[in-house]
Amino acid sequence: MTDGRDDSSSRLARIERLLEDSGRDVVPAWRRVTRGETRWAVSAVILVAFALQMTLPHRLAFQPYWLLPALELALMVGLFVANPRRIEPGTRWLRWPSLVLTGVISLANSWSAARLVVGLVRGTEGLDAGPLLLTGGAIWLTNVIVFALWYWEWDRGGPMARVMGHHQYADFLFVQMQSPETAPPDWEPVFLDYLYLSFTNSTAFSPTDVMPLSRWAKMLMMGQSSVSVSIVVLVVARAVNILR
């Protein structure tokens, strides 16, 4: 009788362990505590934005033209030195310098875009099609990077909050969240996913396969589409007019 009870108890214990394991497997990586993503991708893209801003005509830049790019570079180097590898709980204090860096890049590019649009409307910009297309392309691509950084910084509270699994509900719905069988069990969005989101929103002027869920995400995507279509329409129209 004792052996039978022991056998039943062991089977019950195995069933409980299996249920616990299956319950853990059901929870997707983007909803639980995970290892932080690396900083290499976001650092490389910020360097691209810095390089693009340095190629713009000085008359379109915030004056003095070197001020904001120099501040961007100083902030990026400081962030990279403070945490060159992964976003981890111990680096939570770096969130504010990271937000300031994104804000500075946004200010510099917004200033250049506004100056370009005003110049095109007044007829003082775009005397040569080639340089105009290059300038418009640089501002447009920097705009893609800027919004990718904002999406990355704010989705579910930012990269640090995502590492800790603090937010249950997502601001952006990726395909892998809807269909977890299409991705590895440890999949969660990283910066390159937000860069893809920003690029497709700037080219299609609307959501593609990533859906905004929260109101702020919808408003931010609407703002990006508005800026993107303004730059593309005005620059291309002016360039075509010059070539004719």
UniProtKB/TrEMBL annotation:
Keywords from the UniProt entry: Membrane, Transmembrane, Transmembrane helix
Spans traversing the lipid bilayer: 40-56, 62-81, 93-112, 132-152, 220-240
Species name: Streptomyces prunicolor
Organism superkingdom: Bacteria
Protein name in UniProt: DUF1345 domain-containing protein
